[in-house]
């Protein structure tokens, strides 16, 4: 007796198949958060606590060049930092699934090769959007406002989510590469210097030349400067090319990361040992 194996779908049918599989994985990740709400809530409240510390404990001693309200200066940087630190949750979850064999079980199923990483990406973006909404509400509560109209404000929010989306794929790739707890912990520690080595709290002009150059060209710095401009909030300014073209760089850096890490993530997933 011969058993006929159906041919894999093609064209639009293949795309619908991949999207349906990705949504199933997204639902699985969302269900995990629903069953463990404490972890989700803590992830949302931690950046709020950091905002309160900087706004009310350190804010009185901070002077913004050219004047301006410190809390309005602070909040765009905190929004971007929340997006950057979200990479920890991504690569930790991906690495845990790979180490426990969950990813290998998914690979044994008749599903689209991109569905697991795409589903994780959608779930984490929903998480990040919720976190950004909480942060914006916190900013409004402490006195932050935007001054350039709703269109510019939405563009700023779009740049923040674009940065998170790009870093999300970097996190997926790193999570597939680092499959032990020690390596993941070391990477978590390295995320903090990357976040703080930017123009969020200090002007790159006040740093040693080589360190200021790194901070100036940090993708996070581009997004922070661009969102400050779009929100109409005070910033450090600067006469370097990166400072003068912050909005352009806030698009170029995430686009470059996406071009690099999306194919790397899918290829790495496909090559995982079973």
From TrEMBL:
GO annotation terms (biological process): response to antibiotic
Major subcellular location class: membrane
Domain ABC transmembrane type-2 stretches: 38-272
Membrane-spanning parts: 38-58, 78-99, 129-146, 152-176, 183-202, 246-266
Keyword list, A-Z: Antibiotic resistance, Cell membrane, Membrane, Transmembrane, Transmembrane helix, Transport
Cleavable signal peptide: none
Domain of life: Bacteria
Pfam families in the record: ABC2_membrane
PROSITE patterns associated with the record: ABC_TM2
GO cellular component: a single term: ATP-binding cassette (ABC) transporter complex
Localization per record: Cell membrane; Membrane
GO molecular function ontology, one term from the record: ABC-type transporter activity
Membrane topology term: Multi-pass membrane protein
UniProt family annotation: Belongs to the ABC-2 integral membrane protein family.
Protein name: Transport permease protein
Species the sequence originates in: Sphaerisporangium krabiense
């Amino acid at each position: 007796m011969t058993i006929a194996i159906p041919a894999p779908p093609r064209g639009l049918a293949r795309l619908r198949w991949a999207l349906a599989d990705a949504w199933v994985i997204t639902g699985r990740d969302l269900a995990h958060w629903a069953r463990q709400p404490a972890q989700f809530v803590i992830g949302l409240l931690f950046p709020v606590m950091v905002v309160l510390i900087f706004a009310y404990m350190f804010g009185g001693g901070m002077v913004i060049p050219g004047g301006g309200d410190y809390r309005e200066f602070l909040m765009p940087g905190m929004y971007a930092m929340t997006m950057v630190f979200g990479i920890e949750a991504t690569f930790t979850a991906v690495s845990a699934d790979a180490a426990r064999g969950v990813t290998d079980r998914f690979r044994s199923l008749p599903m689209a090769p991109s569905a697991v990483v795409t589903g994780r990406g959608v779930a984490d973006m929903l998480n990040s959007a919720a976190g950004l909404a909480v942060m914006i509400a916190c900013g409004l509560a402490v006195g932050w406002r935007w001054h350039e109209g709703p269109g510019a404000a939405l563009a700023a929010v779009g740049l923040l989510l674009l940065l998170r989306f790009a870093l999300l794929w970097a996190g997926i790739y790193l999570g597939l590469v680092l499959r032990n707890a020690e390596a993941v912990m070391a990477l978590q520690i390295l995320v903090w210097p990357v976040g703080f080595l930017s123009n969020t709290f200090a002007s790159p002009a006040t740093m040693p030349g080589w360190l200021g150059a790194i901070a100036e060209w940090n993708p996070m710095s581009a997004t922070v400067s661009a969102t400050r401009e779009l929100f109409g909030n005070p910033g450090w300014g600067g006469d370097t090319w990166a400072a003068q073209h912050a909005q352009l760089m806030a698009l170029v850096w995430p686009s470059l990361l996406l071009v690099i890490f999306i194919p790397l993530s899918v290829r790495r997933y496909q090559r995982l040992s079973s």
